[in-house]
Design a protein that fits this description.
The chain is mainly alpha-helical. The chain folds into 2 domains: 7-33 and 230-266; 43-227, f41 fragment of flagellin, N-terminal domain, CATH 1.20.1330. Helix content is 73%, strand content 4%. The protein has helices at 7-32, 43-96, 104-124, 161-167, 174-227, 231-257, 262-266; strands at residues 128-129, 132-133, 140-143, 150-153. Helix 3 runs antiparallel to helix 4. The model has no long low-confidence stretch (mean pLDDT 89).
Length: 267
């Protein structure tokens, strides 16, 4: 029986230290909700989760870009619906102006309305969305994924000759009305094609939006598996470690008391 070296106490202290460390780790995980509270917990998992987190953020940014592009196209189509109404009325006026029973005064009134509608169409051609022109015909590159891939959003050019020829028509004469009718019909045909392109843009961007949403959810689930703590499991570990700490503390006290039995031999 020795006094200077208490192997039992040292072993109990080591076990108590490990149990206390595990208890602190469980407490940190439960309080933070994270399985990885320090790089030492899971260095490889931390590295993977950081990459997944960065990709999730980039995917969110790409989805915002796509949503903005969808809004851009919807705004375009909203204007073009009214342009269609204007061109339809202009073609109607061009036909009415070919009525041989109309006087020059009547034709002047028709021309005034035709000119006003043409000015409206020309004004729409100058509109913008967040300072980006809606109708200058530019094809916009929309970012569609976290790696920077793009989709070509086909533009609409209301300043093209298909439209300006129609808006600049003059129906105050019979020959002018016939020419104006032909140009408005051409403009309506061009408008139909442009609206079809916008519809195609919206449809494709909608697919990209759904794809990004699904990707973001899956990435978040994968990251959660690595970093988020399972509260039920960790609570069980916490209870176990808490009991071990309490019992280890009691056993260390007993181990420290053992050398006192040497005093009996000295009595």
């Amino acid at each position: 029986m020795v006094i200077n070296t208490n192997i039992s106490a040292q072993s109990a202290a080591t076990m108590l230290q490990q149990s206390s460390l595990n208890l602190s780790q469980s407490l940190a995980r439960l309080s933070s909700g994270s399985k990885i509270t320090s790089p030492a917990d899971d260095s490889a998992g931390l590295a993977v989760s950081m990459k997944l987190g960065a990709q999730i953020a980039r995917t969110g940014a790409a989805q915002q870009n796509v949503n903005n592009a969808i809004s851009f196209n919807q705004t375009q189509d909203g204007y073009l619906q009214k342009v269609n109404d204007a061109l339809t009325r202009m073609s109607e006026l061009a036909v009415s102006a070919q009525d041989v029973t109309k006087t020059s005064a009547d034709l002047a009134l028709y021309q005034q309305e035709y000119k006003t509608l043409g000015a409206y169409v020309n004004d729409v051609a100058t509109k913008s969305f967040n300072s980006v022109s809606l109708f200058d015909g530019s094809t916009l590159k929309v970012t569609t994924d976290s790696e920077g891939a793009t989709f070509s959003n086909v533009g609409v050019n209301l300043g093209s000759s298909s439209y300006t020829t129609a808006t600049g028509g003059d129906i105050s004469t019979l020959s002018g009305a016939k020419t104006a009718l032909a140009s408005t019909l051409a403009a309506i045909s061009a408008l139909a094609s442009d609206r079809a392109n916008i519809g195609s843009n919206e449809e494709t961007l909608g697919y990209y939006n759904a794809q990004l949403s699904s990707l973001s959810n899956n990435l978040s689930a994968a990251k959660s598996q690595i970093t988020d703590v399972d509260v039920a499991t960790e609570s069980t570990k916490y209870a176990r470690q808490n009991i071990l700490v309490q019992s280890g503390t009691a056993m260390l006290a007993q181990a420290n008391a053992m050398p006192q039995s040497v005093l009996r031999l000295l009595q």
